[in-house]
Fold this sequence. Notes:
By secondary structure, the chain is α+β, with helices and mostly antiparallel strands. It has a single domain (2-338), classed as 3-Layer(aba) Sandwich (Aminopeptidase), CATH 3.40.630.190. It contains 14 helices and 14 strands. Helix 2 packs across helix 11, helix 2 crosses helix 12 and helix 8 crosses helix 9 (220-227). The longest helix is centred in the last third of the chain and has 20 residues, at 235-254. It starts with a helix and ends with a helix.
Amino acid sequence: MEEENFEKSRKGRRYKKKSGVGKKIGIAILIILAIIVIILGIGIGMVATKIGKINFSELDESQLGLNNDLYNEVSGSISREEFESIKNVALFGVDGGRSDTIIIASINQTNHTIKLISIPRDTYVQVDGHGKTKINHSYAYGKEQLALKTINSNFGLNISEYVTINFEGLINVINKIGGIELTITKAEKDYINEFVHESYALTGKPTQLLNSYGKVKLTGEQALTHARNRTVGNDFDREERQRDVITAAMSKVTDMSLSEMWDISDSILAEVKTNLDVSECMGIAANVLSNSSTYLSSITSKQVPSETDGKGQKIDGVYYFVCDLEKASQTFKDTIYGE
């Protein structure tokens, strides 16, 4: 009965407040928070040493398929001032050369909200130079440059910034912050225990198994295994688990003191690649930290396209998630600018 209740609680959670744990440590938002925390009250020289830990990699904005008419398309539901206050960053979680996780982190500095919008990795889209294929293939074909262009051109967005972290980096960061708490089902616990040895093989540490399910504390290795789970539920459940991880990691980091964040910042910053503008991030970070309680109580997550807006379909023997891209584009705009 207990397992049944946990399984029921997971189903149907489409757009929800922050909850339990998840995946690659808050990626974009965490890096913003880390940079911000470093900036707050700490000398410029020391800040420079921290920023030097980050792997910056610029992109050619003229090749990102930016929708320069986006404001005109959403102006009926948002002012120009609020539109300009919204920061959208693409988060790529990479495993084996493909962006196994694609999440758009949308930070609204006017309303002090954060929205995490995940895109199913099997979504059938047009990839420039490669025809119709899975959206996560775009990263394998052209890294962040082509991945962003694919997102913008298929969903009518204008995202130009990204943060990328690989799965192994997830282990290091979560262990550095002392693990994360997550509510898991018995089936998820059993999956972790069956496959977690693969994650521990990456770090060389003794394998730790879970003794219970429900609300548990996960190590980095256990969290990585959980994030890779494709067996329990479907890809939509898997992506929800990943969004939950980001939320839990963000919550834990923002509860830390400045000295604690300073201590872990090297580990966080060293695991990411980004083209975020540091000076702009300073302002966003200050806004997030000064309104942290409001932000943390206003984190929502959603998947676009949703499970009900498309269907799995085999094309030439390959599984894809086929949806109405025009409808998905409108849902993206409504979610970011209209809700």
